[in-house]
Write a structure and sequence with these properties.
Blueprint lengths: L6 H7 L23 E5 L4 E22 L5 E15 L1 E2 L7 E3 L6 E10 L8 E2 L1 E2 L3 E5 L9 E9 L9 E8 L1
Antiparallel strand pairs: 1-6, 2-3, 2-5, 2-6, 2-11, 3-4, 6-7, 8-10, 9-10, 10-11
InterPro entries: Ca_lectin_sf (IPR036684)
Length: about 170
């Protein structure tokens, strides 16, 4: 089974965070750097990461939580799965969601997605990954919480529909 990039490789080539909550989506899509793309996690925001797959190929999505100030990896987890509109689950415990509490420091979540047409054990190849899009939902009269919703779309190089692996990162405060 192919291993995700090492910490040294990730630290050397982390893609810059999203341009911001109101940034326009990038024009077109491109292959992600071998370390994936990142989104910023705001200080004191709780967050949850989920992933779904929409292909018969096996998908593996690696998530890494990074301290923004030091670029140090804090935690990492892997979602796996395959099938039409199927939730991916954490490789470690089978849960469909990776939740974590808010911290006073800014963080980054890095996402890297791979696919294998042969087996859940690989070999895995990098999927094409569209740059993430982040949407901000302001508090309003009916809801006092502030939300950020980020989505990553991947393609396994077969039909260019960018729905083979979909990863969402939700933040709220």
């Amino acid at each position: 089974m192919a291993a995700p990039p090492s910490a040294a490789q990730a630290d050397a080539a982390v893609a810059p965070p999203s341009a911001g909550p109101n940034a326009a989506p990038s024009a077109g899509t491109e292959a992600a750097p071998t370390t994936g793309y990142t989104v910023e996690i705001k200080p004191n925001f709780r967050r949850a990461v989920r992933a779904i797959t929409n292909t018969s190929a096996f998908q593996r999505a690696t998530f890494t939580l990074i301290d923004k100030a030091t670029n140090r990896e804090i935690a990492s987890s892997v979602f796996v799965g395959h099938g039409a509109r199927s939730p991916m689950t954490l490789e470690s415990n089978g849960s469909p969601v990776w939740k974590f509490v808010g911290r006073p420091e800014a963080r980054l979540v890095k996402v890297y997605i791979e696919h294998s047409s042969r087996s859940p054990n690989g070999p895995f190849a990098p999927s094409k990954l569209a740059k993430p899009v982040t949407i901000k939902k302001e508090p309003d009269d009916g809801n006092n919480e502030e939300y950020y919703f980020s989505v990553f779309l991947s393609e396994e190089w077969t039909d260019n529909d960018y729905d083979d692996g979909v990863v969402t990162v939700v933040q709220w405060k």
